[in-house]
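Practice record 12: protein with WQD.
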Amino acid sequence: MKILVTGGAGYIGSHTCLALLEAGYEVVVVDNLRNSDAQSLKRVEELSGKSLSFYAFDVRDENRLDALFKEHRFTSIIHFAGLKAVGESVTIPTKYYANNLISTLALCKMMKKHGVRNLIFSSSATVYAQDNAMPLGEDARLGCTNPYGWTKLMCEQILRDLCVAEPSFSVVLLRYFNPIGAHKSGRIGEDPAGIPNNLLPYITQTALGRLKQLSVHGDDYDTVDGTGVRDYIHVVDLANGHLKALEYAQRNRGCEAVNLGTGQGYSVLQILHAFEQVNKVTVPHVIGPRRPGDIATVYADPKKARDLLGWEATLGIEDMCRDAWNWQTQNPKGYRA
Ligand code: NAD
Ligand code: WQD
């Protein structure tokens, strides 16, 4: 079975390509390398001992996409390609709408034209409104606070409508919580450009001495120790969730939204201390003000993933902290080194 993976050179995409090759799928990647390095795919091939096909172009390029669908008979698509920096989406919203919506629409068109019926979409916990009770079930109220989030919610709606219009189609909208960690080999991992926005890369780069200190964004939330609580999920567990979603999509029709989280929340200080303990390093940090737009606590209800996909997270916070550090120490400057 041949799978088209858009955005496959990126953080979650590269881990999923590895899981796909290991499971015996044929893999074709399209990525414009806007936020990634083709080195990740070379390492996926090296780790799996198998090869994949890589095409460097923008998913919005319908001519190239059409030629690709003629060249390969895809069973299913996993659509990771997208821009994901929340802050940048506020300052350059049109770039986010153009990239994330038009790439998804181009794929919808090709699915219909070439009879490819299954698609797994990278959605996000960010599509949930901020006033829901925890844990977040898939039927919690939806609503966004930034353009990035809206692109995800709009793509969800487009894909839901597509499945109504095309009853033979099957789409799984995977709502990721906070992916962290890396493959245990340390050969592939998260390689953010510039100063990281997310907690874990900020911690690893501070531990390495590339950044001076971590600022903990507020310690006056109504949580276990006052710092923000999130549902961190190991990227290898997340990758395996895509394989389960593929199997589900191939057996079923219609559109389903499914959370991929652990159901367990950890505070910023809990993560920081776990990281220091597991890796026997010190991470200089200060308590800073709250970050605008943050809320106290976010964690998933992972029951639907268990019931519908037969998937649940297996790796814990120590694995996530150890593997993130292993990747960072082996690749202090990421793939560019
Ligand atoms: P990433 O930036 O590492 O990977 C995305 C990949 O898509 C990159 O390799 C980039 O070059 C490529 N890309 C972007 N636009 C493209 C286009 N128009 N054509 C071709 N390639 C394009 O990000 P990631 O963390 O691996 O995230 C993958 C997906 O999951 C994204 O859609 C993201 O929004 C979503 N997501 C990520 C997180 C997270 O915290 N990492 C959480 C929830 C959802
Ligand atoms: C986690 C916690 C911060 C950095 C974001 C996106 C979301 C999704 C996942 C794509 C919070 C605290 C962080 C730092 C800190 N991405 N923190 N100091 O905000 O939960 O989610 O990534 O879909 O859409 O919004 O993740 O890693 O930025 O923050 O104290 O330097 O760490 O306040 O409590 P977040 P994060």
